[in-house]
Amino acid sequence: MSFEYVNFGKEAIFQDRHVTKVSETISPFVLGDKGQIGIIGLPLSKTSISLSQAAEAPQKIRSHLKSFTTFSSEVDQDFNYVKIIDFGDCLTHPTDLTESTERLYKSVSDMLEVNACERYVLLGGDHGVTFPSVRAFSEKMGRVGVIQWDAHHDVRSFENGGRTNGTPFRSLIEGGHLKGEHLVQMGIRDFSNSKVYHDYTIEKGIHVYSMGAIEKVGLPSILSTELTRLEKEVDCIYLSVDMDVVDQAFAPGCPAVGPGGLTSRELLTSIEIAANHPKVMAMDIVEVDPSKDIRDMTTRLAAYIMIKFMYLPIY
Description:
Elements (H helix, E strand, L loop, with lengths): L25 E3 L6 E8 L14 H7 L7 E2 L4 E2 L5 E6 L7 H17 L3 E8 L5 H12 L2 E6 L18 H7 L8 E6 L6 H9 L3 E4 H7 L1 H13 L4 E7 L21 H12 L4 E7 L10 H15 L4
Parallel strand pairs: 1-5, 2-5, 2-6, 6-11, 7-8, 7-10, 8-9, 10-11
Antiparallel strand pairs: 3-4
């Protein structure tokens, strides 16, 4: 008995020997490994002020890497040689949110400590995971600059619920891990924030670009200006992508979905531009809730963003 057409314990997936899928180039981390890209999952969404199952996103996003090949026709380059190391997902505490946040910080710190990769992709989770992640980068890598794609400022006060997915950048600034002038916010949407938090961004010197400003000036011009400024002031640059910056037509699987945002193409192009800067070391992708998605539109877009970040700067 040969079981010629049965693939024990695995999916029945068509394979073309001339095609390499991104998922095929990823291997689990083993101590002593070296690679170009490191991936870690930060599956925490219990700090979300909106009902969210974003903790399920890291595995869901990874699953869509099998939908994309390693070949870029635009640059005529196959990136099948790029080694991607997966550090797995952080085990969060079932009830203690402070403990969970500390575990995320420790996991990112440990990943940076082994110095296995040149760049990192961090998969949330809600936007609250950016606080422990950037904290770890600031302690290990020096002065950090952050470019944030987001419909919201995420500088809410702590009085109305403590640390949440609405407080990561206030937490970083007031904790001394990030200077206000080293934070750039892209895609802030009208009628989506309060005057108090708008005034806070001005007080702290945060560089804010609304959707209106993006329409007038253009993302490439804004990114070029801000990257040139940051490179003189910081040691590394961290990209934080809240998927609700994208219009709900392109990313329906977000807890705070809304109209008037970026197109998927605009986001992808801007990530490619930013990722090409040599001081960019990391990118997180947050606020993807697979339970709210439609035909996996949002998780597929998140996977595509990963690929733009991982491959094209290497070319």
